[in-house]
Amino acid sequence: MTIPPPIAMLAELTHRCPLSCPYCSNPVQLQGKAAELDTATWADVFRQAADLGVLQLHISGGEPASRPDLVDLTAAAHDAGLYTNLITSGIGLTPKRLDALESVGLDHIQLSMQGTTAGLADWVGGYKGGFTRKMAIAQEIKARGIPLTLNAVMHRHNLDDLDATIDLAVELGARRLEVACVQFHGWAVRNRDMLLPTFEQTEATKRTVAAATKRLRGILAFDFVPPDYYSDYPKACMGGWGSAGLNVTPDGTVLPCHAAESIPHLTFQSVRDVPLADIWFKGDAFNAYRGTDWLPEPCQSCERRDIDFGGCRCQAMMLAGDASVTDPVCTRSPDHGLVLKVLEDAGVARKDGEFTYRAYAGKQG
Amino acid sequence: MILELAPTDRPFLPRGVRVQPDRVRGGMVLLAPEKAIRLDAIGEAILARVTGQASFDEIVDDLAQTYNAPRDQIGTDVQRFLVGLRARMYLGVNP
Ligand code: SF4
Ligand code: SF4
């Protein structure tokens, strides 16, 4: 098998974030500030990524604006020839910083939405006053004409807010709205009974997105990530393991996907020790589930084998306790009963209490 | 909104969308927000003419002439290609 070079890289500059969303995709073991790569090392990683074939750089976190050197890092990425996408909550950005980011060549901003009212958004994000500040910076982004995508992570407590989210995206001049139903990894697992949408909500969401896609054609493009627990087939996670993208954590650890550390038998290399190209092409973790040869039945003889590659490894790990089996979300998986059980339990346990917010273990980093 | 371009519409790549060489894989690539699309020779030829100045008709004429191909066929291909980009908001249009 010839291994294609990666197209996209997610750079988690920091795990620090003023918000504490209960579905945060950062690992449960958050890295502190002291562990983070410095400016020069990140800049070198960006150059290595571009040399390797990466075209798109997602500058993420945590909250990337928590890094004082965000502008320098964006400049380094731009100079390396990468398309720069800033994934942010907006908190920590200022008009002055936006000007600086624009002048060093920032290409696009993806702004996260926790809700369309201060009450809802600040509750979900666990940060009082966050919504007002986010809206202020959204207006600054709009005024500058920086290409904008809104990313709304949807779950049981804000799915009914979807119409308002769509209106807000149009009002803010966003070109694209990502309606991403929460995926259950890391922190989200701890909040599953709070977050898991009902079947009815999921169906209504699909209808809303389909209708809005038609109505807003040429005004707002949609990307929809349905909640996969209700799907028949799993998602092709990352477009295939070690096939299109990679993820660098704040301390330089390189992962095939952001949740890969949840697979205990894998070991990961760091850009501090090994060139990025060697990690991509030769790293054990990247080769562990590359391609389809390793796939078990029923995937091996399934006509969807080269479409979804057996689904998500981390989900197989979490639900079935084995990262090398068919994603239990798949209705053909022998473990599919586990998903049905989760749905049934969530129906019974459905809570309207409080979230378990993301937090540092022990002392704040 | 109707996505099909009128003969006089002048398409352009909006801010955040650009064509650049792919120095590792070769060829040209269209870069847009969170998306990279490899261009084949036809896509490359079309986008090289998407300047914000040339009208849809002028682009089609130019391509038909350059490649000595039937204008109707080229018109259909260009329309399909540009509508696809416009639906994803990768293309702007000046009247
Ligand atoms: S999901 Fe929320 S808490 Fe996690 S990094 Fe994004 S804004 Fe911060
Ligand atoms: S059996 Fe495997 S390959 Fe087939 S749809 Fe399910 S997960 Fe995909």
From TrEMBL, chain A:
The lineage of its organism: Bacteria, Pseudomonadati, Pseudomonadota, Alphaproteobacteria, Rhodobacterales. It comes from Sedimentitalea xiamensis. Binds 1 [4Fe-4S] cluster. The cluster is coordinated with 3 cysteines and an exchangeable S-adenosyl-L-methionine. Keywords: 4Fe-4S, Iron, Iron-sulfur, Metal-binding, Oxidoreductase, PQQ biosynthesis, S-adenosyl-L-methionine. It holds the Pfam family Radical_SAM. Residues 3-220 form the Radical SAM core domain. Interacts with PqqD. The interaction is necessary for activity of PqqE. This is PqqA peptide cyclase. The gene is pqqE. SMART domains: Elp3 (SM00729). It comes from the Bacteria.
UniProtKB/TrEMBL annotation, chain B:
It comes from the Bacteria. The keyword ATP-binding does not apply. Keywords: PQQ biosynthesis. Pathway: Cofactor biosynthesis; pyrroloquinoline quinone biosynthesis. The keyword Ubl conjugation does not apply. Monomer. Interacts with PqqE. This is Pyrroloquinoline quinone biosynthesis peptide chaperone PqqD. It comes from Sedimentitalea xiamensis. The lineage of its organism: Bacteria, Pseudomonadati, Pseudomonadota, Alphaproteobacteria, Rhodobacterales.
